Amino acid sequence: MIASLICPDAFLSPLEIDKAVERALEEDLGCAGDVTSIATVPEQTQARAVLVARAAGIIAGLPLAAATFLKLAAAIEITADQRDGARVAAGTTLMRVAGPARAVLAAERTALNLLGRLSGVATATEAFVRRAAGTKLRICCTRKTTPGLRALEKYAVRCGGGFNHRFGLDDAILIKDNHIAVAGGIHAVLERARRVAGHLVKIEIEVDTLDQLAEVLAVGLADAVLLDNMDHATLRRAVAMTGGRLTLEASGGVTLESIAEIAKTGVDYASSGWITHSAPNLDVALDIEM
């Protein structure tokens, strides 16, 4: 059931699902469990409920919601009306659950927190993707994620039609301005990075000016260049200078208001921290069916 809810174009490890659900439930249930439900709901009581989107958006996190209910009661029956990656209107039923009432009530907030958070990220990402439609630009995320939820939020970005930047410090070399300063300049830092990098490890370097870009092109050891906080005219000049020799990523000042113009400059990627660190939760709710 859980695997069938995952967006068909975005893998999500079952280990990440288990870790996130167990951590969130442990935080909520503490040592004594849901004392309100235990005190007020007879043990054998059964309940039926629906998870509903209160606002329009892109759904992500249904596998985590399902896993949350099942973690508290394996006998809970789950019927999915939607799948991650789906665009839904306000009022759409997403999932139906039926089983022990105490478990349904105890799992409710954790399931909704995970579902609302990831759906918010997917919805924010899709808004950027829609404004860049018709161009080659790909929207990607950053490492500006909620601690402990990075893999899940990056999955939500993919559910929204975006692409992932590196997952951590260990899967790609991204040389920032501070690395350049400490290492002694662009030429020195690129030479050292290329000596150390394995054949499958990409090297990206951040530049603030076209003069720095020219130096990177002259050295010729990078795979990609991050164009930091450049205005649209400068981005277009960077594209012309590069002539397709390197992948270009625009970063800084990437907003819903600016993304369409950034897309027109011809850069390959635009990275936004906002889609993960500031995306508003999508309003989702659980309603008990009497």
Architecture blueprint of SSEs:
Layout (H helix, E strand, L loop, with lengths): L1 H4 L8 H16 L5 H6 L5 E8 L3 E2 L3 H11 L4 E4 L6 E2 L4 E8 H31 L6 E3 L9 H10 L13 E3 L1 H7 L2 H11 L6 E5 L2 H10 L4 E5 L3 H11 L4 E5 L7 H6 L4 E3 L2 H4 L6 E6 L1
Parallel strand pairs: 6-11, 7-8, 8-9, 9-10, 10-11
Antiparallel strand pairs: 1-5, 1-12, 2-4, 3-5
Question: What does this 3D model show about the protein?
Answer:
- By secondary structure, the chain is an alpha/beta fold.
- The protein has 2 domains: 2-122 and 279-289, Alpha-Beta Complex (Aldehyde Oxidoreductase, domain 3); 131-277, Aldolase class I (TIM Barrel).
- 44% of the residues lie in helices and 19% in strands.
- The chain has 12 helices and 12 strands.
- It has helices at residues 2-5, 14-29, 35-40, 62-72, 101-131, 150-159, 177-183, 186-196, 210-219, 232-242, 259-264, 274-277; strands at residues 46-53, 57-58, 77-80, 87-88, 93-100, 138-140, 173-175, 203-207, 224-228, 247-251, 269-271, 284-289.
- Strands 6-11-10-9-8-7 form a 6-stranded parallel β-sheet. Strands 3-5-1-12 form a 4-stranded antiparallel β-sheet, covered by helices on one side. A two-stranded antiparallel ribbon has the order 2-4.
- Helix 8 (186-196) packs across helix 9 and helix 9 runs parallel beside helix 10 (232-242).
- 43% of the residues are buried.
